[in-house]
Amino acid sequence: MNQRFSTVGMISLILTCILWTWKGGEDYLSHVPVIPSSSRLELKLYDWIVSLRGSGKIDSRIVLVGFTSSDFQKFNSYPSDHLIADVIETLKQEKPKLIGLGFWRHTPTSEGWERLQTVIKQTPNLIGVEYESERFNINPPKSLEGKTGDTTLLLDQDKLIRRQYLYPLREQFPANFQLKPDNYNYTRNFAWELAYHYLSEQGVKIQEPTPENPRIILDFPNQKPVVIEPLKDWEGERVKTQDRLTFLINWTPQNQYFETYSFQKILENNPKNLEGKIILIGSLTLALKDLYLTPYEKNPLRFGLELDAISVSNLINIGENPFPQTFPEWVKYLWILFWVGVSAAGILLVSSTLDQPEFKLKKFFGLNLIIQLHILISLGLIYYLSFPTYWIPSGVAFVGIVGNGVICSLAILFQKTVQEQQKRLEQEKKYSQKLEEEIQRIKTLLLAQERLAFLGKLSPAIRHEMLNNFELISQEVYLSQELIETQLSEQASSDMIHFLEDQIESLETILEINGLNSEILKKYIPPIFLDYLESDNAENLSDSINQDINLGDFLDDCWCRASYKFRFNEPENFKIRVIKSYQYQGTIKGNEDELRYIFINLLDNAYEALLLKFWLNEENYQPILRLEITKYPNYIQISIEDNGIGIEANQTKEIFKPFFTTKQRGSGLGLSLARDIVISRYQGTLELNLEGGTRFTVTLPC
């Protein structure tokens, strides 16, 4: 889980930084063809929300008087000064509140110029237009000095109009905060000039901006003041940084239009009900090419006169419907970080399903899709419901949620796949190791079975021959014993008698050992190798192992028997130092014949190892044999250790296998048979340790 948290957190932070760069880096990212513009995304979302939630409405206080296509056909020319003067004279009779003349009249265009100038001077509530740019200027006539508004339009990068200037770029605000508008003639936008005069007549006190306080404050009677903050650019979307106040246009419903009259209708019908209204005069014909793109989905091309009417409507209704408010730049960056973080939290929540045993890929992606959709819907609802009071640019946040959801999900799935693959590889490795061990065990077992099967076939003949030899030896011993006894019956010297008595004692020992070997041969060779072939031998294995045996005395007796057969062939100076450590002096349940075979076999090997090392003529060599008996709570250990010639370390695994021997005349069956007896009959162990010497340890349960 910690690894997933780190992965999701790292991806979310990196993605947030990329989104921040994308949002704030239009200046250089816009030149990369494959990278779409974040501001364009925000603009499209703004157009969508305006079409759904725009609070603009058709204001009945505004009337359009336009030079239409029908007027163009009737008068067959651009509207002349004389025609415009006639229209103004006709409208004056209806006593409108304001008249906005949207035609440029800086030079005479036709007959009637002088008359038009006279009409303008006689119409104090008429506002004209002017234009000034880096390339050219269109200055108003003297009759309109101090009564004009600038017509500069603000186009976004997609050539759509969404904002409107309040002041032209050339306006230099007065430095003195206390300077009243009466002492300074502000150059305002055409729509703001009309709205300014209208609101002033309604008793609204307007404080215009200064360098120290670049805001517009409108103090309405009987309500809180309205503040228009500087909108220097597209609220952080870097469309085009502006140095003057602008405002977001609150568009009217796209299927509704202002009350409109043509020039011909005004002159012929002399319309009524225009008293106290704002009348805008301008072009409403395609012939004059005064068309601009708007966010409207239907009929996006609108005349400049319509745009002026909508802007005037927005401004005179600002007390009831303020412009959409936005947030500082740093808040928008935190807004992106917040929603990417919410998306990451949802992914981490869903990722907990990966730890379930019944985990399924469809379940993970299904739950993740549901949570991410809920997050997107939540953001969409906030974006939708907060407008038009607040406009929160959320396009980049939408991209962040979707991108983070997809990338983190794929990263977690990849991480899970890698973990599963590693786990599978580990399991396969363990299984392979176990399989190899099992194969090796089976090979060893098969090899042992083959050896046992071969020996099982051979052992009856071997036993028969060995028993015959034992019988011949016994007969020879009996004959020798009788011969000695015969000689004893005759007269002989005392030395001879003593010698013959020693020979009789030796012959009796030989008979006893010969009988013991014969019994062991009869009991164990067939059962060990043919226990599954000869049923009569299996019965011998059930002989009693409940005899009480004193281990100390028994081990001493075995040593005497083992060393006796070497007595006649050992060198004169060969003396073994026997060190006994019998911590346990009690008895154990067992079978004497079986245990005697085990211990004599081990003692024989120890004796031969000591003798072989003695023959190497090492200086100051002292043969040492250690016999130890130690009792533990659940078992007894009998150890036989010598400092003889020793066993090679690489032979420890082979030493207990049948037929393996290091002796020239050995059969390789002694240790194998002894270990089989310990394991099969006593459930004990026979182990070899080469530290400090050659040490065989028999462990028997007690």
UniProtKB/TrEMBL annotation:
<feature type="transmembrane region" description="Helical">
    <location>
        <begin position="364"/>
        <end position="385"/>
    </location>
</feature>
<keyword id="KW-1133">Transmembrane helix</keyword>
<dbReference type="InterPro" id="IPR003594">
    <property type="entry name" value="HATPase_dom"/>
</dbReference>
<dbReference type="InterPro" id="IPR007890">
    <property type="entry name" value="CHASE2"/>
</dbReference>
<feature type="transmembrane region" description="Helical">
    <location>
        <begin position="333"/>
        <end position="352"/>
    </location>
</feature>
<keyword id="KW-0472">Membrane</keyword>
<dbReference type="InterPro" id="IPR005467">
    <property type="entry name" value="His_kinase_dom"/>
</dbReference>
<keyword id="KW-0902">Two-component regulatory system</keyword>
<feature type="coiled-coil region">
    <location>
        <begin position="418"/>
        <end position="452"/>
    </location>
</feature>
<keyword id="KW-0808">Transferase</keyword>
<dbReference type="GO" id="GO:0005524">
    <property type="term" value="F:ATP binding"/>
</dbReference>
<dbReference type="Pfam" id="PF05226">
    <property type="entry name" value="CHASE2"/>
</dbReference>
<keyword id="KW-0418">Kinase</keyword>
<feature type="domain" description="Histidine kinase">
    <location>
        <begin position="495"/>
        <end position="702"/>
    </location>
</feature>
<keyword id="KW-0547">Nucleotide-binding</keyword>
<protein>
    <recommendedName>
        <fullName>histidine kinase</fullName>
        <ecNumber>2.7.13.3</ecNumber>
    </recommendedName>
</protein>
<feature type="transmembrane region" description="Helical">
    <location>
        <begin position="391"/>
        <end position="414"/>
    </location>
</feature>
<keyword id="KW-0597">Phosphoprotein</keyword>
<keyword id="KW-0812">Transmembrane</keyword>
<dbReference type="InterPro" id="IPR036890">
    <property type="entry name" value="HATPase_C_sf"/>
</dbReference>
<dbReference type="Pfam" id="PF02518">
    <property type="entry name" value="HATPase_c"/>
</dbReference>
<keyword id="KW-0175">Coiled coil</keyword>
<dbReference type="GO" id="GO:0000160">
    <property type="term" value="P:phosphorelay signal transduction system"/>
</dbReference>
<keyword id="KW-0067">ATP-binding</keyword>
<dbReference type="InterPro" id="IPR004358">
    <property type="entry name" value="Sig_transdc_His_kin-like_C"/>
</dbReference>
<dbReference type="GO" id="GO:0004673">
    <property type="term" value="F:protein histidine kinase activity"/>
</dbReference>
